[in-house]
Amino acid sequence: MAAAFPPPDMPPALVARHGSCSLLTPDGEVLTLPTEDALRALRDWAPPLVVHAPLTARRMRLQSPSHLPPWLDLLELFLFVLPGRTIPPTVRGLALALGLDEARIGAGEADLLPELADILLDHATALRATPSGEEMAALAVRMARAGWAWGAPVLQALGAAHPLPPERLQPGDAIRVWRRLPKWEETAPRPAPSNHPVSAADARRRLAEMLGPQAESRAGQADFAGAASAAFAPRMVRGDPHMVLAEAGTGTGKTLGYVAPASLWAERNGGTVWISTYTRHLQRQIEGELARLYPDPAVRRRHVVLRKGRENYLCLLNMEEAVNIAASRPGASSATVALSMIARWAGATADGDLTGGDLPGWFGDLFGRGMLAGIADRRGECIHGACPHYQRCFVEHSIRRAREADLVIANHALVMAQAAWHAMDGDGATDEDNVPTRYVFDEGHHVLDAADGAFSVELSGLEAAELRRWLLGAEGARSRARGLKRRLDDLVVGLPRLEAPLEAVLQAAHALPPPGWSARLSVVLSAVPAAAVAAVPPAAHSEPDALPPDAVLPGAALPMVVKAESEVALPNPCERLLHVLACQALARSAGSGGTDAGGHRPGGPMPGAIECDLRPLSDEAGPAAAALARALDRLAVALRTLVERLLERLEDDTGELDAPTRERIEAAIRTLRRRALSRVEGWVAMLRALEQTDGEASGGTPQHVDFIRLDRRDGQRPGEQDVGLHRHWLDPTVPFAAVLAAPAHGIVMTSATLRDQNGHGEAGRDEPEAAERAWEAAEARTGASHLPSPALRAALASPFDYRQQSRAFIVTDVAHDDIGSLAGAYRTLFLAAGGGALGLFTAISRLRAVHQRLSQPLEDAGLPLYAQHVDGMDNATLVDIFRSESNSCLLGTDAMRDGVDVPGRSLRLVVFERVPWPRPDILHRERRTHLSGGAPGEYDDRIARLRLRQAFGRLIRAGGDRGVFVLLDRRAPSRLMSAFPDGVAVRRAGLRDVAQEIEAFVRRREGNPDAPA
Ligand code: SF4
After folding, report:
1. Bridging pattern class, strands 746-751 and 72-73
2. C or N: which end of the chain has fewer Cβ atoms within 10 Å?
3. Which residue's alpha carbon is nearest to atom 4 within ligand 1?
């Protein structure tokens, strides 16, 4: 049974750290060597065993291990043998998952790796005679041929050899996993839910049942459940939902608190409650907590569904295409290995979620995130009922399961998009989801941000070009984009009433930027004044593709000054407007007025974006916008006609259409409306608004904020910038209230930080007026103030004793603008805590600079350092690693500040580099002017306090936690200190004193729990 790895040829093993490596030599000796020496030694040996090859290579300052023979990455072996499980991608994470105890793992040196390989190969051997073993053998044959380093050891462990006997599963069939997946069955539509209420007493009772008799009683949790039940009362007036605003301090147990009334309501009424979160992490956490209500996983799967946008799921048709392409290209060996891994996972996954589900987040680190994007349903090209895999499709299955579930766990973005689509579709004929009537918004403090994203409009080069690709297909480029004609052909062919509008859509789509627009934009910007483009006669504008797509100036960087050197015609109306907008943004950012969203002064290095006000418009912008509005109007009319004719076909051909064809037409209508028509109509409305004179547009409180943004997006090379016209709601809770809240029957809006504590201590305790203002601000941020009836307010204090469990300091002697001092301060504090430290930054550049100076000294002290934006791992993976270790340190930005849940010793120190003021961009300027009630300074303070509260909230997650919060910004005003919970006194002190306090509070107390606090 034992696979006995690694004999007979013992490979070396390698664990890389910052600047040094733990190395197991082929002779079985364990060495700790400087990186350079380890690299020299490895050149003469067989490829080593590693855990996370890309990270190992980065730590050794290798661009990639690809120029070396392939390393034996144990994570790949884990993925292959035990698919559908996630672990922190470290030696320790892997060892714990494979059942090794702490004592055996120790510091996770290289000599542990052969043992881990042996355990995994033993697992494979144990599966030899099962269908899983047969699948592994077939896939391993294919992968070994593609050069997978584990191919031979796995085949040996499985007792298989190429060629496989003909009666066994063959490699070509094994990778075509869609043939083996179970089919879902269609069910009758669910009736609308009834309206029986849930009383507070019922909710408390359900909570007690879920917790069981042994659970400690938490009064705040029961009160929370009772208060939340008010959102499940029958609605009395259309457009007037019951809204409960419930602030629950950390540790209240609010998840089960709202699950109690929500699950009761769903059971009594045959309906579904949608629970919405802002972060992926919380979605999975809630799903885990529901094991209290449904301990049996099969029952839980029936009652609870986790829903995300379609782009998160594996599309089997895209996978089939990718498999076929890989098979036809002999050089596509890495794609073959990656797709084989996906085939293994697809057979084991619970729901096909590629992002944050049971596919480890580090899959993308190992095989490339582009690969995952290519097999997700990301391009909006689903052909629904015409797809040969429709009845096995993960996306469709998840949508159907959600219709039947009691509780659906979704995210704010999806929930808002769904409500907006429902409002747009109107007739409801093509809804794929049963639109919920009851919602719980967890992380309710993010509703405003989520609504801002959901209801804004962006007309940029990338957005417009993406729509063109969706409508016209690849247009000769090396892309698998299918285009509308190919997707709809069989639905419209031979039907002139449908063929004509489809043709009109395709014609009108040529107004969108043709391939090569981005490079042309860069070239033109470096050479032409806006006036020259405006001078092009109108006739030339209607002639698409007049500029060759290859008119590229390689590596051209976007200049800060527009040069007038030649005249170039931009015939495409969209490209022309983009050019005019870019010229305006550059012209106005050179001296003043432009805002660099990365926090850098315009004119300096440009890591992020330049924004500028749209008004006053440049002379060229009005005519260019009008021309594009006319062109897009033609596209909108054609799209609308196509949608109407498809709807007519649904009505007229009722008797002739079979169910799959009906479904396809409904899906086509849905995607045409959502993906194309709504976008084009939004653009036209935005462009038409430009026709107002500046005088008309100014004065009074605006409804929208319009601005131009020039930015460089992730993954683009210099010279591939984008420019766009942006329209945001001044107050995004207005559309949120209109399209989601008002049509609902009941909403629970909850968070630990709904209110700003702007008085002394707990809002409301000392200053009733301040407390009232805090509630009113919370109502404004959540949209409650736009509803007819007032929200029911509830506030449950945290059960934690912050006075005893925490300390907070402002360090007074660190020069905030000196990276060396900042890095030194982080080093001192992290060492004082002995790790278990989270460092938070407000700028990526400072995070990187500090990381560079910090990694070696921490490594020397035995404290592993991980960092967002540096380690190339996704945030969830970084947090998983951090949580699994007790002495590591983690650096991060906003995403780490909100929503990271690390209870216990792993997190005992949070260090924030500076006050998290709101970014001074145009949107913020307008909001602080118009939404602050005449007190813009207080508006800024409130945002900063809420962010500090969120950051502090990471520290104490359980009753036994102890931790210290440090702000390295001596300029921090005292008026912000009410951000911290009641009982936490913030002290100002020098770095040395703070370090000593940390050591005394966090470390010595660990050895002596009875020591005085
Ligand atoms: S139905 Fe759509 S999403 Fe599902 S596999 Fe087919 S094309 Fe992909």
Report:
1. unpaired
2. N
3. 393
